[in-house]
Design a protein that fits this description.
The complex is a heterodimer of chains A (714) and B (467). Helix content of chain A is 6%, strand content 58%. Chain A is globular. In chain A, 44% of the residues are buried. Chain B is elongated and about 80 Å long. Chain B folds into three domains: 37-149, Sandwich (Immunoglobulin-like); 155-182 and 351-466, no CATH class; 183-345, no CATH class. Chain B is mostly beta strands. Classes of the chains: A mainly beta (714), B mainly beta (467). Chains A and B meet through strand 12, strand 13, strand 14 and strand 19 of A and helix 1, strand 1 and strand 31 of B.
Chain lengths: 714, 467
């Protein structure tokens, strides 16, 4: 009853807003979908910041405006509509990872202002995309393919570089918004749905000093579906949530100083997150003597605390050399509190709390560009220092009974150099090399070579060869599960997996008129991994498993991306075909055929200037995904069969409207219009103890949101 | 200054909204599902003949008392008279006893004094809870307690398996409500006391044993067994290793060691894998740590010596051996021997005095061979106990008429590990068991817990009722 009442209010609000936006008759035309005539400047993988079309490396940009139109709060929201990138939510942990070219988050690196962001499982990789809030950012730069020379370990499938806002045209600017969102059809003021509040204040203290501060709160009530939440004292497997509820609070601030020779900024980011996992099974504790019960359940509360400090200096020395030096200290600690919850009294018993997983890192990266005075050749040299320390508790990774945690210190001392050589005005070459030494691994060398050729005014050709390695995970290094029946062990002697990628991009810019422009890009990609780490049988009798560097992985594909601007209409339409082959040297009878997957995406936006309103549609189709799985056939023999995850589509729609000259912006929208919650799959392999799951969770069904933003610029 | 005021005017209400929205309700909810306050006898029956002078009759409350109250217990007896044959503390007034419920208490008790030592099988004394004065009180559960000389009517039990190391073998006798506990590595070999000459290995420490070619124990050395040593173990995932363990169904004719022959030339030397010491580590909640350090290997040979057994054993590379004569133990399933103490040990009750054994055991998995199981419950096949599983949620309604005698299984794993779901870490829903003891008493039994309230394994609980 309560739910339906709240829902009524919610939709009434939606309706009011919608009518308002249609009837309003503003004359001002400021919101336009035409790209700003100043070409977008990018920094990712560049020797000097430069226009995106000048970059030898292919960089995709998602602008602040794109993010706002989508009412995206976190990186997970915005990447869900990007071609090739798939968001992979884990309903059990509440984290959202990414899959690119078939490789998971371990191979993908997330950076903020050129430096990797920490999380409890990695420095830059293994990021939970829902923990990266986008309120203070200017744009997102995406590079597909290995970027090991510029960004070091784990930048294998690609990187995301989030560029934060460091200046303002206004003396004061204040932005605050509230966003209310249903989770599927679940919504209540406090316990259900998603409730977001944000406030951001920026101020230019003087010509040279700028500061901003932001606070963000994201309260996700979880997705109940058929489950009943915390206060469900029945032993029917319905307690708890299908998607874990979590609350995030994020405080950020930035102080920047800019003068003609040097720019400095210090950025601070503190994140606090609570994840609530209420045990699904209720122990009724029947007392046969009295015929009564005293139900209890086991609950787990996770708390994430992330601290991020980043001090950066850029400038010019000797009137020639551009330097860019970052110093950063970051840590993320995930704590776990476990207890027995007694329903009748509402008390927590046997409370145990401790650290679950943690990472901390001191990081420094410096680049020195234009080392020689030359019109044609720009030489950059750089260093990267990572002093990382991590722990994994017995609750987080499988280690020997009685051991409380594993702890690892991993230090990287890397040097890299890169040269951009303008061979002809139309042809440039960009070789690069990184040497990486560490306390755990033998020195590693990764190289890169990029070339760019322009033909005529409109054609750009790029060939990008890159390499990067992936550092073994704690699971792979430290697993210890040995008892009478099992022998599964990590391997401290593992070496990093070696990744190489090659991309060929052909780009055509077409301008038909002032209001009709088009960009088309056709890309071919190859990505290969050697020394892939896999759990293999190392002894037959008794049967023993260990992680080893043994397998190979190949991804090949092609994708076509088109941007069309026609008057007030903008479209991004893409199609991608990717094939994946796994050579399992660990298995006697594997199948290394390429298995292909098709993706389509189509993001459309149309602005009605006199209403100051933009209508947007985001569509993404992910074709069936196949994977070889080992199964027992009818004859009773083990064989590799093609397992399949069914195709599915996402569709989001939003309407943005500006009021009073942009002082207020209202957005309403619906996400996941096809109402996807899970998709059938046969692509998982069952274990010795468990049947393979037949469905993989993807979303929580069709949801609606409303966001009201207030902007004040003084 | 003006700008600041504008700023305040705009931002303060907004902040207020934010703060308001940010303070969600975090107060704990107390679930009151109308559960009554119940006073009941802890168990429904007691054996009169086992009482020497007195015994306490325990009463339990469904929750810790938060008020003061009173319980009225009515006594009825046949062939026994209050004051002559027995008395109680508190004393009865007429045929009623008054007990006070005090705040903070979880139960109370009545002491039964047996005055006449020769009360016979015809005597029955019943205590009935006839009235409870307490807020929201209800009379249910074990509302009466019967003292006579018959088999137990049932009760609940929490066998002391010992937690996540499951270090104990717990023998339960349903009819006498007796629980006997031994650590599972106290013995190594069990010499069968029945007519057959058979020797069992201790599957609860995951022992394995393989027959060798030789009949000369002193001639066997570690180089002779090097090829098979690694394979003679539990949990190697080699189906052929079934030959190295006693069949888990409990049939004495299916032991891994062949029948001991009266012809010494037939009695081969065996390679004995002593399995694992009892684990001592504390695993994560829900997991077990059964196996500790490996205990190594011995070579053994067993012969007959008249009606007894002759055990020869030695370290693998020893050229001499130790000999022990082991007699059968009438009334018991086995005579047990321990290599740790080099002596006979008493590690199980008499054959007729136990029905169920809570123990770690070695099981067989089709296609994977032997596999170490925890949380096992084996019935006393050799003592004549049979049981079967009922898949139904009708435990409460199940009566003697519902018993299907044809379903009774000899296989001692009829309960086995079927009662729990090891992946979910829960009880198997909607199953219960029917058990017939050597004296023909038939019980229904169901499990109440696999773990304790904190999710720690090795704390099973069950209840049973005489049908």
């Amino acid at each position: 009853m309560q739910l339906s009442f709240k829902k009524t209010i919610f939709f009434a609000l939606l309706a009011t807003l919608f009518c308002e936006s249609l009837s309003s008759q503003n004359e001002q035309v400021r919101d336009t979908l035409q790209p700003e005539q100043l070409e977008e400047v990018v920094v990712t993988g560049q020797i000097n910041p430069q226009a995106v079309n000048k970059s030898v490396v292919e960089v995709k940009v998602i602008s602040r405006r794109d993010i706002e139109r989508q009412a995206a709060n976190t990186l997970a929201d915005v990447l869900n509509t990007t071609l090739n990138l798939n968001i992979t939510p884990n309903t059990g942990t509440g984290k959202s990872g990414v899959s690119l070219f078939g490789l998971d988050s371990q191979y993908f690196k997330v950076l903020i202002d050129n430096i990797p962001v920490i999380n409890e499982e990695g420095v830059g990789n293994n990021i939970d995309l829902t923990l990266i809030n986008l309120d203070d950012i200017e744009r997102i730069e995406i590079v597909e393919g290995a970027m090991g020379v510029q960004y070091g370990a784990n930048a294998v499938s690609g990187i995301i570089n989030i560029i934060t806002k460091k200046s303002s045209r206004n003396d004061w600017h204040i932005t605050a918004y509230v966003q209310e969102e249903t989770v599927g059809d679940e919504y209540e003021w406090f316990d259900k749905g998603r409730h977001i509040q944000s406030v951001k204040v920026g101020h230019n203290f003087s010509e040279k000093f700028y500061a901003n501060a932001a606070y963000f709160r994201n309260d996700f009530g979880g997705f109940f579906n058929d489950r009943k939440g915390e206060d469900w004292p029945f032993d029917d497997g319905l307690r708890g949530h299908e998607w874990l509820p979590k609350t995030q609070q994020n405080v950020k601030s930035l102080l920047s100083y800019e003068s003609s020779n040097i720019s400095l900024f210090y950025r601070f980011d503190y994140l606090h997150e609570n994840i609530e996992r209420y045990g699904q099974n209720v122990d009724l504790n029947p007392n046969p003597s009295t015929g009564t019960t005293n139900p209890s359940a086991r609950d787990e509360m996770y708390t994430n605390n992330r601290f991020y400090h980043h001090l950066n200096a850029t400038g010019l020395v000797f009137n020639q050399v551009n330097f860019n030096v970052s110093l950063s200290y970051q840590e993320q600690t995930k704590d776990l509190e476990r207890y027995t919850y007694r329903f009748r009294t509402g008390t927590k018993e046997s409370v145990e709390s401790g650290e679950y997983q943690s990472r901390s890192a001191f990081f420094s990266r410096g680049t020195f560009s234009n080392l020689f005075r030359s019109e044609k050749v720009a030489v950059q040299a750089g260093y990267e220092l990572t002093l990382e320390e991590g722990t994994g508790s017995a609750a987080a990774i499988t280690i020997a009974a009685g051991d409380s945690e594993e702890r690892q210190q991993l230090d990287f001392y890397d040097f890299f150099t890169s040269t951009e050589w303008q061979v002809t005005p139309r042809f440039s070459l960009r070789p690069g090399l990184r040497v990486s030494t560490s306390n755990l691994f033998a020195p590693q060398y990764v190289g890169s070579l990029s070339a760019k050729q322009t033909v005529g005014e409109d054609w750009e050709f790029r060939a990008v060869l890159g390499a990067a390695n992936r550092t073994p995970s704690y699971q792979e290094l430290f697993t210890y599960f040995v008892d009478v029946n099992h022998d599964v062990q990590g391997n401290p002697n593992l070496v990093p997996e070696k990744g190489v990628s090659t991309f060929l991009h052909i780009k055509k810019n077409s301008t038909f008129s002032d209001t009709f422009r088009m960009k088309n890009k056709l890309s071919f990609n190859y990505l290969g991994l050697e020394d892939r780490i896999e759990l293999i049988v190392v002894n037959q009798t008794p049967l023993a498993f260990q992680y080893n560097n043994i397998d190979q992985y190949r991804a090949i594909g092609s994708f076509l991306e088109n941007e069309i601007y026609y008057e007030n209409f903008k479209a991004n339409i893409g199609v991608s075909l990717q094939g994946i082959s796994k050579v399992l040297n660990s298995d006697t009878q594997s199948n290394d055929d390429f298995l292909f997957n098709v993706q389509l995406n189509s993001n459309l936006a149309y602005t009605v200037p006199k209403w100051q309103t933009t209508f947007s549609l985001y569509y993404k189709y992910i074709g069936r995904q196949q994977q070889f799985v080992e199964r027992t056939n009818e004859a009773g023999d083990q064989e590799f069969q093609r397992g399949e995850t069914e195709a599915y589509s996402w569709l989001d729609a939003t309407i943005n409207k500006r009021f009073i000259d942009g002082a207020f912006v209202a957005s309403i929208g619906a996400r996941n219009l096809f109402d996807i919650t899970e998709v059938n799959t046969t692509a998982f392999q069952g274990g010795a103890h468990n049947a393979a799951p037949t469905q993989t969770p993807l979303g929580y069904g069709r949801s609606y949101f409303i966001r009201l933003t207030y902007n004040l610029n003084l | 200054m003006k700008t600041l005021q504008t700023f305040k005017a705009f931002i303060l209400p907004l902040l207020a909204v934010l703060v308001l929205a940010a303070c969600s309700d975090d107060d704990t909810t107390v679930i009151n599902d109308g559960e009554p306050f119940v006073v009941a006898f802890e168990t429904p029956s007691g054996n009169l003949s086992e009482i020497e002078n007195n015994r306490d009759i325990a009463l339990v409350y469904s929750e810790t008392a938060t008020n003061i109250g009173q319980v009225v217990i009515t006594i009825s007896s046949s062939n026994a008279i209050y004051g002559e044959d027995f008395t109680t503390i508190p004393a009865a007034d007429g045929n009623t006893i008054l007990l006070t419920i005090n705040e903070g208490e979880t139960g109370a008790s009545v002491t039964f004094n047996k005055l006449n030592p020769s009360l016979d099988e015809t005597v029955e004394i019943r205590f009935n809870i006839s009235e409870v004065s307490y807020p929201n009180a209800q009379i249910q559960g074990n509302t009466s307690f019967t003292l006579n000389s018959s088999a137990s009517l049932g009760r609940s039990f929490a066998p002391t398996v010992g937690g996540p190391n499951e270090q104990n073998q717990v023998y339960i006798d349903l009819s006498t409500e007796k629980q006997t506990t031994y650590q599972r590595d106290e013995w190594d070999l069990g010499f069968y006391s029945g007519s057959e000459f058979r020797v069992a290995i201790n599957g609860s420490v995951y022992m394995a044993v393989a027959e060798l070619e030789s009949t000369d124990i002193d001639a066997v050395s570690s180089s002779d067994v090097a090829d098979i040593q690694a394979a003679v173990a539990v949990g190697t995932f080699d189906p052929a290793n079934e030959a190295y363990v006693d069949h888990p169904d409990g049939d004495i004719n299916k032991t891994a060691i062949s029948a001991i022959s009266s012809n010494n030339a037939d009695n081969k030397v065996y390679l004995l894998n002593l399995g694992f010491e009892v684990g001592t580590e504390t695993p994560e909640p829900g997991s077990v740590a059964i196996a500790g350090a490996p205990r190594g290997y011995l070579k053994i040979r067993i012969l007959r010596e008249g009606d007894s057994y002759l055990l020869q054993y030695a370290e693998l590379d020893a050229t001499t051996h130790t000999e022990v004569t082991i007699e059968k133990s009438p009334g018991y399933n086995f005579t047990f021997f321990s290599f740790n103490s080099d002596s006979l040990v008493n590690v199980a009750p008499e054959s007729e005095l136990w029905d169920l054994n809570f123990t770690v055991f070695t099981n067989l998995i089709d296609g994977a061979g032997s596999y170490g199981f925890s949380d096992g419950v084996l019935h006393n096949r050799k003592g004549g106990v049979v049981s079967y599983q009922v898949e139904s949620d009708g435990y409460a309604e199940f009566t003697f008429e519902n018993v299907q005698a044809a379903n009774f299984q000899q296989d001692q794993r009829a309960i086995g590990s079927n009662w729990r779901d090891v992946l979910e870490g829960t009880l198997t829903p909607d199953v219960f068991y029917i058990i017939q003891d050597p004296n023909g008493n038939i019980y229904k039994l169901r499990f109440l817990a696999l773990t304790n309230d904190d999710g720690i394994r090795g704390y099973p609980e069950f209840e049973y009722e005489l049908l």
